[in-house]
Amino acid sequence: MKRIPRRGFLQAGAFAAGSLVAAKEVMLDPSPMGGGAPQAVAPSDRVRFGMIGIGMQGSGLLGASIQLPGIECVGAADLYDGRHLLARQITGKADLPVSRRYHDLLERKDIDCIVAAVPDHWHKRVVVDACNAGKDIYCEKPMSHAAEQGFEMVEAAQRNDRIVQIGSQRVSSALCARAREMYHSGAIGEVENVELSLGRNDPTGAWIYPPPFDASPQTIDWETWLNDAPKIPFDKYKFARWRCFREYGTGVGGDLMVHLISGMMFTLGWNEAPRSAQALGGIFRWKDGRNMPDIHTVLFDYHGIPVYVRLGLGTETPELARFMGPKGILDAGEFELTYSPQAGVDTAPSYYAGGFPREMREQYEREWHEKHDPKLGHEPMTESTVYHGHDWDDVSPHLWNFFQAVKSRKPVTEDAVFGNHAAIACHMANQSYFRSKPVYWDEASKTIKS
Fold first, then answer.
1. DSSP character at residue 122
2. Model-level pTM greater than 0.90?
3. Mean pLDDT for each consecutive 10-residue tract of the chain (450 residues)?
4. Contacts of 82 (CB under 8 A, 6+ apart)
5. Rounded to an integer, what distance in angstroms lies between the CA atom of residue 3 and that of residue 274?
6. DSSP label at 220?
7. Which of 42, 319, 322, 335 ranks highest by number of CB atoms within 10 Å?
8. Taking the alpha carbons of 32, 33, 35, 40 in that order, is the dihedral positive or negative?
9. What structural domains and CATH numbers belong to the chain?
10. Count of C-beta atoms within a 10 Å radius of residue 128
């Protein structure tokens, strides 16, 4: 008897059972703000913000913010003098007040809120200081540089009744909103497994950024920039490439994983730290003196649900968040969401019957078809749906939600508690890597243990 490969057997059976496959494509609202932005804002209703950090990410946030209706930058701070000029160039204000001291912004009564994009080892200090000064703050991800810092930040936000939004912008995207809606409507059933992955393959993607030509102790306040990190002589490469070093950054965990984790938490409605993390990785390609891995794989346990994460800086792969359940799969990416339903039933007689004697097998297959084949004209249809949407990495919708919350005092999605839980996952991944063993989250002591 000629054996049919399992895949071919199932495909043949699907046609025998009369199933049909179709695909549908849907365009989501192309507006980054879902049509919610007003076209004109009265001067008395404007939001005036101060910008802290005008580097690679900060310059983008500044430019995006001032394009929003009714949003105005009225001051900027950075420890590198060249970015003072950049802030004025972006805003078109030759007289924009600029400073090396971010406290100058916190002390101004005419500033409603702060947008901050500073190295990770500065996040806690800037957020806590802003909250204590009575300022709402949008702070870039990851929320903290170490797990214990996040709780100080949450406490400062709650004690001062301040709005804190962390900058994993996809949680404000139409694609994430549709994924969340579909999951909670039961599209795939209860999630059983999650896979998150992203790969880069270029020097810039691996944070090998060109330092400013004029970088020096004269143009950069290096002693202040070091903050609580070990004191070392001025190093323009560490200033530009701080993500490569655990003294200042959080590696691929804090740069890439936190986006994937935040999107997963939002989609599934989880707002918690993982129970455990087990990581493998290393420095395989970018052997340039960095001490953070360029390959990092992690297996998390979220209340019994396995979440596998793969991050790499040596091979480019699409960014993908895959949610799997008994009724199908949701595949979320930067520009589209694909829903592939699954019936979870046999579409053909079991291939196990290939081990039956011929007469028994023929009887089994005959009885199976009599029981399961649909009537003509009533063949089932499996329809996959692809939703095309605006880039989920566009920061504008996320910034808009923050500025609107500053005015309305309504909660934001990615508040300090949410941001803290997402950051804890990244810290657990890093701790497992550096300790070379699994780590666990101890909720009682709020610490990572191994």
1. G
2. yes
3. 40 44 74 53 86 98 97 98 98 98 98 98 98 98 98 98 97 96 97 98 98 98 98 98 98 98 98 98 97 98 98 97 97 96 92 97 96 82 87 95 96 96 98 98 97
4. 212, 214, 219
5. 45
6. B
7. 319
8. negative
9. 6-26+344-379 (no CATH), 43-169 (3.40.50.720)
10. 18
